[in-house]
Amino acid sequence: MSAKSLAKNLRDEVVYLRDQQSVQAIQCDELVAYLDRVLTSPDEEVDPVRMEQIRTELQSSVEDRKALQASSLEMFRSVITAGQNALRTALLMNGGATVALLAFLGKLTTENPDKLSTFAGSLMIFTFGVFITGLVSGFTYLSQWFYASKRDWCQMTGWFMNILCIVLGLAAYGAFIWGAIDAYTGFQGFA
């Protein structure tokens, strides 16, 4: 029996006792007023079908949020991994070019020492590309450190440093291209 049906039966009984039996030992008016309030209140019990619908909707909402969170986390991980790969590539390109140019210059010192100055600029550009890549690694750490803070100014600083890392990363690739063009120009002078 629901609370409403119990209250209705109790109210009917109290009204009967009051009107037909003239029982005045209980304060009937107050009890009837209370029971009327109970009867006009919304249902407290939810039928089992509706309760199951509510549970299903809630579970679906929880699962959607979990999937969204997992997707966001995976996207963040993929961005971090892509950034790390870009830094490794820039370091490998500029570092490899520096080492190769140094090996070439070592051979050139014995055969044509007067041509060494032709490649000094290229060596400096490739070395600068390696330096920029190292700088980007440090700024990446600082960017994540600022992002971890919940303060607004830290979030903004992290965002600015993130943009700076992207620009410097592109500059490291640009340094490789510039150094390669400079080295190519130097090799053209050999012909």
Structural commentary:
- The chain is mostly helical.
- The chain folds into 2 domains: 3-40, no CATH class; 81-188, no CATH class.
- It is built from 5 helices and no strands.
- The chain has helices spanning 3-19, 28-40, 48-111, 120-148, 152-188.
- The mean pLDDT is 87.
- The chain crosses the membrane at residues 85-105, 125-147, 159-181.
- Keywords: Membrane, Transmembrane, Transmembrane helix.
Entry keywords:
191 residues; mainly alpha; 5 helices; membrane
Summary of the model, kept short:
The chain has 191 residues and is an all-alpha fold. Helix content is 84%, strand content 0%.
Question: How are the SSEs ordered, and which strands pair?
Answer:
Blueprint: H1 3-19, H2 28-40, H3 48-111, H4 120-148, H5 152-188
Helix pairs in contact: 1-2, 3-4, 3-5, 4-5
The helix fraction, in percent, is over 70%
Counting H and I runs of at least 4 residues, what is the number of helices? Answer: 5
Outline, from the CA principal axes?
rod-shaped
Number of self-contained structural domains: 2
User: How many strand units?
Assistant: 0
Low-confidence stretches: none
**Span between termini:** 104 Å
